[in-house]
Amino acid sequence: MSRVSLLYRIVEFAAARIGYKKIFRYNAEELRGFLNKIKDKRNAGPPEYIRKKYNLTVETICGKPCYIIAPKEKPASGRAILFIHGGGYVMEAHPVHWRAASLLVDRLVCPVWFPVYPLFPCYTIPDANAVITEVYAAMLGRYRPQDINVLGDSAGAALALTLCHHINKQGNALPMPGKLVLVSPAMIVEDDQTILSEMRRLEPVDVMLATPFFDSMRTLFKLDANRENYYNSMFYGDFSGFPSMHIFSGTFECVHPQVAAFAGRLNDEGIKAAWYPGERMMHIWPYIPFAPECKQALEKIFEIIRK
Hints:
Rossmann fold, alpha/beta, eight-stranded mixed sheet, globular
């Protein structure tokens, strides 16, 4: 097993101290109570440095703001990024998301579209997908589909897959984007007992996630195990026509067994997908500041989108 840097250990310790894992251990009723308590305290807007450093515009799409973060200089190319933040469908964007979006603008000199999508307990996955789909449709009015890169993490990565499944199911009324970059994609519903067993085995070394969250959200969302329903099981189904996929997962996150199985199925089906497992890395580690392992992963994402 490879070693990790001292900086990464410090970052990992800090992530554990923040205490997200406690929330992800709540049972369904505890989680519902917590989310009802915080739902009116959410702050979905960007931090002040985003407003000062970039050309920031806001478009209202499906009644929700979509922040377009653009460089002050002329973009170097016609590409754009649809950035779908994670948070388990229950949390707004974290500062690490805004930081990652700002670095994308800096390094790739292109606009990043950062939608605020609806969250549980007021909304469900189809509601979130409806907003993401309309944001993507708005982007198609300005960019060629092959120049749109969709980058999502955790639940945001699942929503990126859901968008493409939705396009397929709607008879390809919209063209597919150029590529998908999926960071620590997470699927709530999982009935494969081998995968579930591996997820539970990894839970003690995962400093952020806990497997009870998936059971709680399955109950609260009233999800079933129908693998044809892409809102429930976006790791399954028909991937024909999907853009190339670039998938990141850390071997110390409890969703890693799901991602490994997903990447394996894509490979078996001849779907164009590259998988980048991060040895001993935590959930969404490419977005975490300071540690060299995280910087290297983010550099790889820059490289993927730049090509």
